[in-house]
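Predict the 3D structure for this chain.
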Amino acid sequence: MTRHATRLSLAWSLVFLVMAPSACWAESYVELFIGGVQTENEHIPFSLQHRYPGGVSSEICAVPGRIHLAINHSGTAGLRLGTWFTREGFPGFKYPEWLRYFGFYLDFSYHRLDYRPQKLDTVSIDNVPPVAGLKEVPQSKYVNRFLSEARVFTITFMACARYGFFPTDKVPFGRLQPYIGLGPGIFIMDQEVTVQTQSYVAETRSFTPPFNISPQSNTSVVLCLVGDVGLRWAFNRRLSLDFFFRFRRAQPGFTYKY
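Done. Predicted structure below.
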């Protein structure tokens, strides 16, 4: 029984436009948010490495290629727990006055990241023995296809800074509060892939009919960088509305055996 490993190296920049109502307790808050996700379009490199019976393996038979990225748009939802460094915030320390412009929050989010069927820039050379070399494979490129379904969870710790406009008795810092946040996150992605391809048979110098390769799902856990730019409007000390734009950069990698 042959074993094959498929390696995918992925790099994504994801952009979120989010609306979040916030429940506030003085200067600490809880947010539930929803929004949309847009993923940067770029080519993704991949390779297929083949292991043959008896432990014979040859890098000659590795199949390099690129996926022409086409990802479905999706929504996102999550939870945010945060506080500002004031006496009214958690845990109620008496901070210096200048620290009221700063704070932090924990962010938990979920969204899907599904690839539409798309072409692979390669030709499959399965079933070619290492001793045959590659000279038997035609130079013309056959159209292979790739598609996947994925679920992404992100846990982020964000340091943030704000400024206040339009202070009132109910909201002394200001009803309008633009802010920025930056921090590291844990990017957890579970992905199921399907490769629609063909095999080249050296003996007949011909390709087999197309077939699907569908290995078991694989999970990648990596660090990511997250940045937020937002605008919060405080109706009072207990309720506010938050609009923010998020940039996230992650580079997960996957290995599939089939």
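The longest strand covers residues 176-197.
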